[in-house]
Amino acid sequence: MFLHLGQETTVKTENIVGIYDLDTSTVSKWTRQYLNLAEKEGRVVTVSYELPKSFVIYKEKNDEKETVFISPLSSQTLLRRINQKNIIT
């Protein structure tokens, strides 16, 4: 199954490592360092140029590192879509 992250971006739900709120999670120094490193390594995908509200860590089984998707949708909205099975099959 797939989860729509905004604009024309969808990801396989089975490969989602985590969904995080940008406002609350970036308070941590470790999270900021992780996001900065991912950006320097070119592993960050900005879904939309709207105000970002969440980020999704995504990892394909054969990939060495994760991809970070920055989404304009809130983490609660993304989690609700998964829980309500409001996903694309």
Can you give a write-up of this model?
28% of the residues lie in helices and 31% in strands. Strands 3-5-6-4 form a 4-stranded mixed β-sheet. The model has no long low-confidence stretch (mean pLDDT 93). The chain has helices spanning 22-25, 29-40, 75-83, and strands at 2-6, 9-12, 16-21, 44-46, 54-58, 67-71. It starts with a strand and ends in a 6-residue tail after the last helix. It has one domain (2-83). It is globular, with a radius of gyration of 12 Å. It is α+β, with helices and mostly antiparallel strands and 89 residues long.
For the largest sheet, list the strands in their spatial order: 3-5-6-4
- From the helix content, strand content and strand pairing, which structural class follows? alpha+beta
Sheet with the most strands, sense and barrel status:
4 strands, mixed
Q: How far from one another are the termini?
A: 5 Å
Helices and strands, in order, run as EEEHHEEEH
Number of helices: 3
Mean pLDDT: 93
Quick tags:
two-stranded antiparallel ribbon; single chain; alpha+beta; globular; 89 residues; 3 helices; 4-stranded mixed beta sheet
What is the compact description of this entry?
With 89 residues, the protein is α+β, with helices and mostly antiparallel strands.
SSE topology sketch:
Blueprint: E1 2-6, E2 9-12, E3 16-21, H1 22-25, H2 29-40, E4 44-46, E5 54-58, E6 67-71, H3 75-83
Parallel strand pairs: 4-6
Antiparallel strand pairs: 1-2, 3-5, 5-6
